[in-house]
């Protein structure tokens, strides 16, 4: 049980950091990311972390 809490906390922090980073890199005037390749990697990691958080919340 303690391991799941630690895992959820870790992925929660990762999701917050990646979400803020993606928001900062997005150019709202041109509707593009400043560094497209890095944004793709961040997006994949963000989606995985959100998936793990949702999966852990369903098992509780």
- The secondary structure category is mainly alpha
Largest sheet: 2 strands, antiparallel
Number of strands: 2
- Uncertain stretches of 5 or more adjacent residues: none
Query: What is the number of helical segments per DSSP (H or I, 4+ residues)?
Result: 2
Series of H and E elements: HEEH
Distance between the termini: 10 Å
Strand order of the largest sheet: 1-2
Transmembrane segments: 7-24, 36-54
Protein name: ATP synthase F0 sector subunit C
Keywords: Membrane, Transmembrane, Transmembrane helix
Short description:
The protein is mainly alpha-helical.
List its traits.
mainly alpha; 2 helices
Q: How would you describe this structure to a colleague?
A:
With 60 residues, the protein is mainly alpha-helical. The protein is built from two helices and two strands. It has a two-stranded antiparallel ribbon. The model has no long low-confidence stretch (mean pLDDT 91). The protein starts with a helix and ends with a helix.
